[in-house]
Amino acid sequence: MSAGRRKLCVIMMLNVFVCLLVCVTWNLRRHKSGRHKVRIPSERFWHRQEESKSFWNKEQQRLDFLFNPIVNSLLSSDSLIELPDWLNNTGPPDLCEPDNRVPMQIMDYNSLPKGFQDFLLHMRCRTYPMLINQPHICKGKPFLLLAVKSLIPHFDRRQAIRETWGRAGVIANRSVVTVFLLGNTLPVDHFPDLLGMLDHEAKLHKDVLQWDYRDTFYNLTLKEVLFLEWFSEHCPHGQFILKGDDDVFVNTVRIVDLLEGLPEKKAKDLFIGDVINDAGPHRNRRLKYFVPESVFVGLYPTYAGGGGYLYSGELALRLHNASRQVVLYPIDDVYTGMCLKKLGLAPEKHEGFRTFGIDAKYRDNPCVYRNLMLVHSCTPQEMLAIWPWIIHPELACQ
């Protein structure tokens, strides 16, 4: 047999083998009754979402719907998509105008604290003018940015931080810079007019950031969002951020030491602090953190106490993007936990963060502060007393 005929025979045999294989596979996939098996879902694949009766949850449902990639593709095409009626109830076109739907949709609105009412009326507004900026602060691409939440009247706290743990410059051979985050104070909140003094402070120290919004407990979340926006624009190359209150003491030396030893992969998603699990809203109206069922139902995600936490600059950029998909919530640390959850992340607990303070018997022990990262709360006088314990090498601790 010639080579050409042998090649033709091999090809024909291969074709026959393939046909037999296809037939066997086809038969194996048939049911005993002779019909093909078809996998039918036991439940509906697409559920029509029911409107929540709690205001925040309903607003979040709307954002989840609008940020759904499938819905987005349909809305951007010529496809017809029918929105539930409640999703079309969008409120005023100008998101910074008071939302007059709120008093009608939250049955116990009139019984809420005035600051809470103000937050709910302006919950959709995220755009506020910046009154004082320091765009130069990150030109050197700092290793650690200390972002401190403060109020205009807290001049003594800010000065104590500048002279202790928030001292800008080089610490443990790493560059550290500090910014203080402020809103505006209004006479209705019984604050005196201290803007002249603040303007002088900002020009003198060049470390104050201020936005023109009402600076209240319920607007701390807004401070968080505005800071993330500022960071994304003016400090995107900052490697790490320590964000805390102006009444915490931070062991900056130990923080820098921890960060220097981090593997690159761990540093990317770093978010550590004093972690709270399985928490939910307080329903006692006398408590500062009270949130009624008319506003929110459900459990909180895992979050780190807002007194202070440490995270990477790269994660801050992702949190900025994620925050656009999460409705503002009146408790800032819970809100940050919600944004982390959107990214599929959760904060990691670190024993060095004590946002609920330390026992009174340890408060005068220098060696205790040497081994901790952050302690809440401290007066300016206590900060000035503790800092020398951190930086003096002659203090021996086991």
TrEMBL record:
Where does the record place it? Golgi apparatus membrane
State any GO CC term.
Golgi membrane
Q: How does it assemble?
A: Interacts with B3GNT8; this interaction greatly increases B3GNT2 catalytic activity, independently of B3GNT8 enzymatic activity.
Q: Which gene encodes it?
A: LOC117535146
The protein's annotated catalytic reaction(s) are: a beta-D-galactosyl-(1->4)-N-acetyl-beta-D-glucosaminyl derivative + UDP-N-acetyl-alpha-D-glucosamine = an N-acetyl-beta-D-glucosaminyl-(1->3)-beta-D-galactosyl-(1->4)-N-acetyl-beta-D-glucosaminyl derivative + UDP + H(+)
Keywords assigned by UniProt, alphabetized? Glycoprotein, Glycosyltransferase, Golgi apparatus, Manganese, Membrane, Signal-anchor, Transferase, Transmembrane, Transmembrane helix
| Membrane topology, record value | Single-pass type II membrane protein
Give the record's pathway.
Protein modification; protein glycosylation
- Might you name a Gene Ontology BP term for this protein? poly-N-acetyllactosamine biosynthetic process
Q: Which cofactor does it need?
A: Mn(2+)
**Which Pfam family name is an example for this entry?**
Galactosyl_T
> InterPro entries this protein is in?
Glyco_trans_31
Which organism does this sequence originate in? Gymnodraco acuticeps
What is its EC class?
transferase
Q: What is its EC number?
A: 2.4.1.-
* Protein name as annotated: Hexosyltransferase
